[in-house]
Design goal:
Protein name: Gliding motility-associated C-terminal domain-containing protein
Radius of gyration: 24 Å
Number of domains: 3
Organism: Flavobacterium tagetis
Structural class: mainly beta
Number of helices: 1
InterPro entries: T9SS_type_B (IPR026341)
Shape: globular
Pfam family, one: CHU_C
Largest sheet: 10 strands, mixed
Distance between the termini: 49 Å
Oligomer: single chain
Length: 404
């Protein structure tokens, strides 16, 4: 560690020039830390912060290094400053309270963020947690997430680690296909009617969830996304949690152009194992802004509809080896897209049929998964569009692939 000017003032550590923590070096700060506008702090080692953190200068790391910053302790910690704190890897573990971290500044994560213990409250202070392209997070749960805005830069799939109060309520989506994509998401355990009255809604929508909503902003980019919202019986009203004989559950979005709530459609997944929330509601959305769940009346099936089988096991035993859409051969003007749970497109084709143009559980190479690779076992989401003599029909739903 090289230190040129770093001094203590009233139980506060103040850095006014260059400070570098080399690889394999360890530094623990047991008092409030302030990086002044003249400060330049490079962390390539292990930095432990037990009190408050303020950055008005430069905080960064060497790209080739594995610097780790640990916010840990037994008292509430304030993380603030006018400049972005650029961390390679960061861990949050504070046992003082359920919400021990108060974020008033911006944190940029380039590697992994470990949400070990303690909620990061950013919404009350204007804070922001930013993940670079390929940055990840682990251990996220009801005990540790971001209560406020989370931003993702670049391409790739991502689970936005957002929630509110005691509830981890993430949204999922792929953030485009290029490095220039930027999206921001926040979950609020509040009634969205206070922002946009639920009385102004499309006639398809029978009722709108008044308990919660997500705000999804497309800061940069032009792609439309496959959006998945988490569903939790502790916050999602029971009538929105399961479909019935009369109603379906869909994603609703406030559409500023039409000045009303509209349906984006959607399909509810089977129960998810190992998650604090129970299900996902997924749809290909047409815009951005405020999202929540809603009920729509079931639409009776049309006579020319096709039959879609929602599971395949491509092991060449002659049973369920491909995704069968019975009757699609009668509608050759069609398009099929398949996405993984994060909204990454893994398959796309036109003129899908029941013989020589069928999905057999392999990537077609148009996404992050290499062409010809067998897709992992799991649940996927499909969007099928086909033209009849009367209209264009869109069918969506979940597809389970057993590639074991």
């Amino acid at each position: 560690m090289s230190l040129i000017s770093c001094h203590e003032i009233k139980a506060q550590l103040v850095n006014e020039t260059d400070l570098k923590l080399d690889k394999d070096a360890v530094m623990a700060i047991y008092m409030d830390y302030e990086n002044t506008p003249k400060g330049n702090f490079i962390n390539d080692g292990q930095l432990y912060i037990f009190q408050n953190w303020k950055n008005d200068g430069i905080v960064t790391y060497t790209d080739s290094k594995d610097g780790f910053t640990f916010f840990t302790g037994f008292e509430d910690q304030f993380i603030e400053g006018t400049q972005i704190s650029n961390f390679k890897n960061v861990s949050f573990k504070n046992t003082s309270s359920l919400i021990p971290f108060h974020l008033g500044g911006k944190i940029l994560i380039g590697g992994n963020s470990i949400f070990d213990k303690g909620v990061i409250l950013a919404s009350d202070y204007g804070g922001l947690v930013i993940f670079k392209d390929k940055a990840t997070h682990t251990l996220t749960s009801d005990l540790s997430f971001v209560d406020g805005q989370v931003q993702k830069i670049g391409s790739g799939s991502f689970e936005f680690p957002v929630g509110a109060g005691n509830y981890f309520r993430p949204s999922y989506h792929s953030v485009g296909t290029g490095d220039g994509m930027i999206y921001t998401t926040q979950y609020l355990n509040k009634n969205s009617s206070s922002l946009h009255t639920h009385d102004k809604r499309d006639e398809k929508l029978q009722k709108i969830n008044g308990n919660e909503y997500w705000e999804v902003t497309q800061n940069k980019g032009a792609d439309k996304i496959i959006l998945s919202l988490s569903m939790d019986s502790r916050t999602t009203p029971s009538e929105f949690f399961n479909s019935s004989d009369d109603y379906d559950v869909v994603i609703a979005r406030w559409d500023a152009d039409s000045d009303k709530w509209i349906s984006e459609g959607g399909d509810v997944s089977d129960p998810l194992a190992g998650k604090p929330y129970e299900k996902l509601l997924t749809a290909q959305v047409s815009g951005y802004g405020i999202f929540t769940t809603a009920l729509v009346k079931k639409v009776p099936p049309i006579p020319e509809d096709v039959k879609i089988y929602n599971a395949i096991s491509p092991n060449d035993d002659g049973l369920n080896d491909s995704f069968l859409i019975e009757g699609i051969k009668n509608f050759p003007d069609n398009q099929l897209e398949i996405f993984n749970r994060w909204g990454v497109k893994v398959y796309e084709t036109k003129s899908y049929n029941e013989s020589d143009n069928m999905f057999k559980g392999y990537s077609d190479g148009r996404a992050t998964i290499k062409r010809g690779d067998k897709l992992p076992t799991g649940t996927y989401f499909y969007v099928l569009k086909y033209n009849t003599d009367k209209r264009t029909i869109e069918r969506t739903g979940y597809l389970y692939i057993n590639n074991q």
